[in-house]
Amino acid sequence: MTNIDFIEPLDDAEGAARARALLGDDAAGVWAAPGRVNLIGEHTDYNGGLCLPIALPHRTYIALKPHGGSAVTVVSDVAPDQSAHADLAGLEAGGVDGWAAYPVGVAWALREAGFGQVTGFDAAFVSCVPLGSGLSSSAAMTCSTALALDDVNGLGFGGSDQGRLTLIDAAIAAENDMAGASTGGLDQNASMRCTAGHAIRLDCTPGLSAAESVTQVPFDLEAHGLELLVLDTRAPHQLNDGQYAARRASCETAAARLGIDNLRILADAVAASDDPAQALADALARLDDDTMRRRVRHVVTEIGRVDAFIDAFARGDMAQAGALFDASHDSLRDDYEVTVPELDVAVDVARREGALGARMTGGGFGGSIIALVAAGESRRIAQAIADEFARRGFAAPRALSATASDSAHRVA
Q: Which ranges carry the GHMP kinase C-terminal domain (predicted)?
């Protein structure tokens, strides 16, 4: 059996040097934004719910040089000899194809938001966030771009948590409107607002201020003798093939039929009732479609699992924290139906090999799992999963060990 590949993060000096080398020596600076792992709270962001992400030490670096025109040229270390080009003048939503839609879309979104001083630029990207892994390499790209453009154009939003909401909105618009990949905002908030040693309790209720929407939650696994294994199954991961949008539309339709603005309102009502199980059953009975009922059941119970996980972790009840991981995955598999065989097998093997709990993370339909494991056990458990994948004829997975890291920042 082949030994599993563990992906190590770049340090900022190396990431900056590689990005500058790809662009040229006249870059105005280098910025970096992290990928993320969502600990729990999946497919809740676009329902006004709760999420609990951490930023990864794995980052995307952008070296950027602005110029006074409207042309944009971007290149990536994935294909360093194939630059992509666009023009911001007259650009409309969906007007850029391929990966360049993400960074160009950020500039377009800022201009659409009234910041006409954002001009054309040349940029080079270097990343150690694995592509297609469900760890939000796209948000790492859009958020690093947003921070760079904010800096070089003097917009002044990057220096405060409240200001970063404007940059987050531009990153979201780039993904949704230019790249056509639906996102609810979890990834961009994590990339722009997480702090080292903490998860953020992200409240996606519409209209909240920065202070109201994020609470920094200490997340120190080492103190409990644990570590977080992240395993990229390398199953194809696509969120713009209609499946994500279909789940979102189902939730919005269900909320409308229940006479509420979003499913968070139902989740709060269920949690506040004397008999939450009965309150949820009564609400589901008002929906006449079984698939829609299962989608709603996942969202409502998953929102509840976020605070339950925070409480269990604060008490040091790691067994309960792991059980909540397991319940989350089972709900995503059975009610939301966003897992694939590779995700389910990886979770099953991790549990069998001693993980306290394991679940898929991200949008699903491919991507990664996370597992709470004893310190020092990540490589052994990841190898066991890789061996099982080989027996089943799946692609070889890759893995990393995740620590709660800092958000997007200028590095050079």
A: 310-389
Structural domain boundaries enclosing 189: 5-219
Pairing of strands 71-76, 121-127: parallel
Cβ-count burial of 204 within 10 angstroms (0-12 exposed, 13-18 middle, 19+ buried)?
Answer: buried
Low pLDDT (below 50) residues in the chain: none
Please give the structure tokens belonging to residue 40.
């729990």
Tell me phi and psi for residue 210, to 5 degrees.
-60, -45
User: Active-site residue among 45, 122, 150, 187?
Assistant: 187
pLDDT of residue 240: 52
153 and 269 both lie in a single domain:
no
What total of structural domains would you count in the chain? 2
Cite the DSSP H helix spans in 160-239.
161-173, 186-193, 210-213
In a domain, 410, yes or no: no
pLDDT at residue 245, as a whole number: 86
The answer to whether the beta carbons of residues 290 and 277 sit under 8 Å apart is no
Q: Smallest Cα–Cα separation from 43: which of 140, 192, 142, 184?
A: 184
**pTM surpassing 0.90?**
yes
DSSP 177: I
Domain boundary among 164, 186, 219: 219
